[in-house]
Amino acid sequence: MTDTRYLELPDGRRIAHRFTPGTGPTIVFLPGYMSDMSGSKATALFEMAQAAGRPCLLVDYSGCGESPGDFADGTLSRWRDEVLAVIAAAGLEQVVLVGSSMGGWLMLMVAEALAESGKVKGLVGIAAAPDFTEWGIAQMDKNMLADGETIWEDNPYGPEPTPTHPGFWADGQANLMLDREIAWDGPARLLHGQRDTDVPWDISVRLAERLRSADVQVMLIKDGDHRLSREPDIHLLLRTVAELVLARDPAA
Known about the structure:
Elements: E1 5-8, E2 14-20, E3 26-30, H1 40-52, E4 56-59, H2 76-89, E5 95-100, H3 102-113, E6 120-126, H4 132-135, H5 139-146, E7 151-153, E8 162-164, H6 166-173, E9 188-193, H7 202-210, E10 216-221, H8 231-247
Parallel strand pairs: 3-4, 3-5, 5-6, 6-9, 9-10
Antiparallel strand pairs: 1-2, 2-4, 7-8
């Protein structure tokens, strides 16, 4: 892995990221909720890109991983703008966005924001979770969030409970996507485990229906869980991303 770099935004936020140069579209990995660029999928993609001479960008949202800040201040819109700022600062001309869980929602938001630029050449979702502030939260908890309270849920991946802050929830509700057409016309590959207890696999099917593109494939892993971080899952991810990058690279 290369050293961590920091992009300072006008308001003082410092966004940690790692970049390896190369030829062809840049693989941009967007981690999930309370995750960061040190995870196994991000690391595997980065190492694959380095070995193949392909560019890859990893990002930590503010308040996550190596980016300073308060996680409670984070929202989808705020993190989308941070990703866009790092892409712009790096001068990336073509990108393939890879989004894991919540990162799959951000992937769609970034793709829409860059639609007119033509920069985005492909999407790869890993248990993509658009609209989880709607379908993933009970009505009683929504009422608490609407009243400005933080809710806490058991965390199957660590000892500390998982918070949902009212600002994040409200911003998510303002950016729902599964109730409309998503104006994306390029290739999209959606990987999802059918034993995912966090994001139902039918979310990827619904997303495929909402994407305007005809070049959309949903790949269901029958015994796969939410993380899809086992060795065969990682191999499927790497193969899927590599095929998409090569297919969109005229020099390949």
